[in-house]
What does this fold into?
Amino acid sequence: MSVKSFKFVSPGVFINEIDNSFIPKSADAIGPVVIGRSTRGLAMQPVKVESYSEFVQMFGDTVPGKAGGDVSRYGNYQSPMYGTYAAKAFLRANVAPLTYIRLLGSQDDNASGDGLAGWATQATPTTDRDTNGGAFGLWVFASGGVGAPGIDLGTGSLAAIWYLEESASIKLSGSLAFGNAGLAPVDAANPNTVAALGCAINTDANGHFTVEITGSKTGVKTSETTTFGLDDTQATFIRKRFNTNPQLTSLPDQFYPSSSYKPYWLGESYEQDLKWDGLNTGKLVGVILPIVSGTNGPHKLRQASREAVAGWFFGQDLGGNSGAPSQGDGVSVAYGAYQPSAMPKLFRLKGRGHGRWLSENVKVSIEKIRQSTSTTTEYGTFSVVLRSLLDTDSKVVVLERYDNLTLDPTSPDFVARRIGDMYNSWDSTQRRLRVYGEFPNNSKFVYVEMNADVEAGATDPLLLPFGYFGSPKFKGIGDNISQTAPVMSASSLANSFINVVDTSGDNFLNITGNRGASEAVTAWPMCGMNPEHNTSWTALSGTLDFPRDRLRTSASDGGLANPKNAYWGLTVTRTSASTRPDDSVMTMNGLLYADFPDDPLASSYSGRFPTNLVGIEAYSYAFTMNDIKTGSNSQAWEYESGSYAKGTAYSSGSYTDLLNQSVNRFTAPFWGGFDGFDIKKPDPLYNAGMSNASSETNDYKYYTYKRAIDTVADPEYLDMNLLATPGLTLPNLTTHMINVCEERADSLAVIDLPDVYIPSSEQYYANKTSRIGTTPINAATALRDRRIDSSYGCTFYPWVQTRDANTGLLLWIPPSVAMLGVLASSQASSQLWFAPAGFNRGGLTEGAAGLPITGITERLTSKDRDDLYESRINPIASFPSTGIVVFGQKTLQERASALDRINVRRLVIFLKKQISILSTQVLFEQNVQATWNRFKSLVEPFLANVKTEYGVTDYKLILDDSTTTPDLIDQNIMYAKIMVKPARAIEYIAIDFVISSTGASFDD
It folds into this structure.
């Protein structure tokens, strides 16, 4: 403080203390980037987490694999997700944040063949539906099994879908619903029993169907006949009787023993839909038909991951008390002309990167809808609440909520401003993520897409979210199961077809199915038709429908005590009277087929049934609160689609009448989320499915990994000091990891070597000794042949065993997982520049890995350790008395220098990064001595502290006119030189034991 700053009033001595010895605050801690799969979370973008509890909240817990169960419905947990273990190992030390990149299937813009992400059955269905694979649906009717000529089956509901591989066939077996169709009987004593595709078959006396499935692959043949029901409370329930694991269709012995091979899997089943219609029990009629239109269908989902979306929220009718509601364009029309779909679209919610998880676990409620009560604005308010999909209105589980939102684009509570409207998109040309949007995202799950007119303030300010468009669905067939009579001649019988033709010609059941010659007999009425006359018969008729969301019809549904608490729109309960959710809702709104439009309601599609979306309804329904009416008393609220158009709805006078009764909330689903993974593989990104010949266009797995690695290539995009992709062993990709770290010059890549251990998710081996795919000497030779010479990479050998904390399951994990924990615990106990090895900091048995390590895949001899270390592979050794320990710390640099050790490379990375951050404080300051002195005052205390902590033994900072010369000043450059002597770790200890005679003197 200058003496001029003192205020002198009376005589005395004035003393001020000036401390120039402070150590500047270090920059925020920098941690690793880990790339891997997880059960949920934002995908294909870096997400920083500060603790493992935060990681679990965002990405889920560790996954050890071998989960079994219903893979088709509940997801693929058959292979370990090593990235989750690496995150846990590192974060438990609490030394720095970790950045995680969750992987979802991605593909290059020019991908084709195996370069396409996703999955498909091995063959696309063709005319011969019996034997060429694809998707096959079971429709059930409540016709009761008796009929007469011209019987109308009524409405058939889709109960389930089987996915068949090439050369597999499926047939429904049992008694024909309407007599003998002339097929060879299953039971000779009962001529009405058949097994065929496309036949109307009765359930048996117990209300069960029987299905026969046959198939073969690479010499393995299988045939099974299964009797099942549709009641999910019974042991005979369809999901308990059929294979629900798509991976069992893989090549025999690829991932599972050939005895486990199945030529099919059961995909979706729609219990909620059947229960609501009373079609899950009792005497039913069923028919199995393929689901396909051209080459499209649910059997073909070869595409990259995509985000789930909620259907567009639209506004209320603003007809007011005139009795003549408008149709969204300000033109008054009669009630009977009102259409919810004509109301103005307002906004919709889109997932931020969760893929399939969002549509299977989250729904959105709009609640507390209020008209404006202010004289300063006409805009009303509402809340957006993200809820757990399987909660109920009596037990609401809130994930996020945003209250007092408005559609006023000038308001701080504008819905897009409060929730956020930013999203990421990968730029394949510049190899980086681009961010679009105006308002930062506050939601972990979604962002807002606004209608451009609303965003521009060009819509009526009275509009409020009052309804939504349901998810798109396959078109059903209405009264078009009619069939033309076959030509009744012996020559035509062998190639007769079952024709199920929609006269509109654009639905997913516009198909033909070949019965096959073996099923043809003499007099052949069409399968399932009334056979009273061999030459004259009447066709069946009826409706085939696909499931759609169930909507609340009464405020008392679900046993709600207070009808004002009812959320209208989507309901997930097992029946209208039930208080329990139905799990089948999870897969109700999946992706229909590959490359389905993100917005089928976009202006580029005309009308409700876009002509270029063959077989698709752009939306399955349009829910609006305008269609809520009163029931038997003023509190018995009911929903009846079309009631507003009839003039019987409560809001027929004005929408405010309904809101004033506190009927102001509804719920909508998300639809269309997809992970882009091949669900037929235990590990959809498995190494064995790639090769060094893989490229970004011919292998989606390769592209997915490379894109994730390239995401972190720019050091100005995010900070990191370690990079790991646990379990990835493909040499081309692990070398790419090292190259990225070297180009950044601020990170160390921890890579895994190929074939050290081959988990069951890579290949099935009956002999477990085959899981050790290499030897220490072969691994050393293979690494030398790769000619990697970089101090920005390191590797370890072999794999280690850990115990999953949640299940107690023992599993083998790659060494990169354990090393993330060792590097973190070493830093926690000392500093990051101490060697992460040895008994003090590398003792895995003692907990240095952050995870319990119980074994190693291969015990190394002294010679093995020498062979590995000479080739720059750090051994993980097991000793009888001291346990399992990391016994090396070399980088992959071939030339001998201080940087061929991990502790020195991490020290230099730390110094460069921290000094770079400190240097920004003088950037753009005047290039004069005072600035030089300020720089030195920032850096020298930092270096002194590193020396005190044994990072360097000595250092020198030179910044004067000998480094920053007049010529450099003219170029706007300040040039400093920092010289350091890094502290070396002791790796070898030599001790001489001298045995002396009794009379010898130790002083000699």
Summary: The chain has four domains: 32-112+678-904, 119-303+475-545, 317-465+550-587+621-671, 934-1004. The longest helix spans residues 929-948. The longest strand covers residues 152-164.
